[in-house]
Each structure stands twice: as C-alpha cells, then as structure tokens.
Design goal:
CATH architecture: 3-Layer(aba) Sandwich
Structural class: alpha/beta
Oligomer: single chain
Shape: globular
CATH class: Alpha Beta
Strand order of the largest sheet: 1-7-6-2-5-3-4
Number of domains: 1
Order of helices and strands: HEEHEHEHEHEHEH
Strand content: 5-15%
CATH topology: Glycerol-3-phosphate (1)-acyltransferase
Distance between the termini: 55 Å
Largest sheet: 7 strands, mixed
C-alpha cells in the first residue's frame, strides 16, 4: 500500500514539474516577469496559503513561474471548469491539484450542499496541515473592477485558512491583462506571444508577495475580511509603485462593481 502511495506522489511531482517547466518556458516569451516580496515575506515556508489577486488569463502561468523560481511546488485549488480543458486539465488532475465548484456565478460561497465540495475543502485543509503550499484565486474570477482592483473573496480559501491556522500570503499579480486580453482564446494568445516576441514588445508582469497573515484567527468570515483588507492594501501599494501596470486598454473586459470590497 505504501509503495502505491509513493508512486502516486511521484506522479504528482512529475506532473507539477511539467506544468512549472511549461511556465518557465512560456512566461519569458510572453512577458517580462518580475517577482517582488515584502520584507517579512518568506513564501518558501511549508504549509502556507498563497491567495492571489486575479488580473488576467496568464496569471496561473505567472504564478507557476514564480513558484518555480522560489523552489516551491504549490498545490493549486481552482475552478473545476479549468480541469475540463484537454491536456491542461489532464495535467492539473495528474498533479493532484484541487478543483472546486461554486454555488453560482456571483455567489461568495462554495456550495457546501454538495458532498464533493466538502471533500475538496477537507483535502485542501489536510494538504496544508501536511506541509504543502496551497495556492489559487480566492475571488474565483478575473477582476472586472476599474483599475483591476481586487474583488470580494469567496469562502473556500478563508475556510481552509480558518480551519488549518496556516500563514496566508496575499499575492498581487499585475500585468497579465496586457499579455492576453479578456476575450482571447489560447490560439490567439499564442499568436500574440509570437508577435510580441518578434517585435520586442513584451509587456511587464509583476507578482508581489505581500506581508503574511500569520495564524489567522476567528471564523472564516473574519479571515475573509482580513484577506480582503490585505489584498486591497497590497494592490494599492503595487499600483502606486507601478502605475502603468494597472492601466488597461482592453475594451473586451467588462466593468462590474457588484463584487467590490466595501468597508464602512
């Protein structure tokens, strides 16, 4: 039984390495990636959660690129829709990444009425407790807010953080929206990458590891509030330092403030 489990883990590591290898090749061809960290951030620590602001379609590649540079093989938790894609979906499943379903398009909640969703959250909690890094996009969609501002997070990541007590790293990701526009498919994205490489116009993309939230306490609603406040703070900081990265000329990205983070 132990040999079977070991072989399974080896296959997962190979699949994760393959995905990160793809990111190491693809990202520098599509953009000029930069990784920055808050002075207190040590993202290589075990059993942490990376909660990433979602600005564009190439964010996952940029995340895997950054993880590879830091020597981390995170376990991704993301929308089940991505696991249905041919090839990429197979790799995601083989790597042991975690699909999660949501109650509805604009809901802030995961659908806990579904037994498989409860199992998914349990899997994520156990992965963090076992020392794995869990990474993904708590808002569960590309932001549609003006200036690429963060949106309200859904309850999945806060539930995992509250149950595990893991350190949470808010990550700001900016520039991905300039690599691939909101309405482009993979073929169009590949053509644009080749064109950008040929013309020397590779947009800059930045991923920033913010000040960690250590031992987040309280219920998941309290953790969600902590995380949202941290993501807004870090996004504002990154934009102040890199104002050009938040400008978007992508007319295909709809503007929607229904999930804006509001505080009294």
């Amino acid at each position: 039984m132990g040999h079977v489990k070991t072989r399974g883990l080896s296959r997962q590591k190979l699949a994760r390495s393959a995905l990160q290898g793809l990111a190491r090749v693809a990202v520098p061809l599509m953009c000029k990636p930069q990784i920055r960290k808050h002075s207190t951030a040590t993202p290589g620590e075990e059993g942490a959660i990376w909660a990433v602001h979602h600005g564009g379609f190439t964010d996952p590649l940029l995340l895997l690129y950054a993880a590879s540079k830091l020597g981390v093989q995170p376990r991704l938790m993301g929308s089940a829709n991505f696991f249905k894609f041919p090839v990429i979906g197979s790799l995601l499943r083989a790597a042991g990444h975690i699909p999660i379903a949501f109650a509805e398009q604009n809901s802030a909640q995961v659908d806990l009425s579904q037994t498989d969703v409860k199992a998914v959250l349990y899997t994520a909690i156990e992965a963090v407790r076992a020392g794995e890094t869990l990474a993904g996009y708590p808002a569960a969609r590309i932001t549609r807010r003006p200036g690429l501002a963060p949106e309200r997070v859904r309850s999945g990541f806060p539930r995992v953080a509250a149950a595990s007590g893991a350190t949470v790293y808010p990550l700001s990701s900016l520039g991905a929206h300039d690599v691939v526009s909101y309405d482009q498919n993979f073929r169009a994205a590949a053509k644009k990458a080749v064109r950008n490489l040929a013309t020397g116009r590779r947009p800059r993309a930045l991923i920033y590891f913010g000040e960690p939230i250590r031992q987040p306490g309280g219920n998941f609603q309290a953790v969600a509030r902590q995380l949202e406040d941290a993501m807004v703070r870090d996004h504002d900081f990154v934009v102040r330092k890199n104002p050009a990265l938040a400008r978007s000329s992508d007319a295909s990205r709809p503007i929607d403030n229904s999930r804006a983070i509001r505080r009294p």
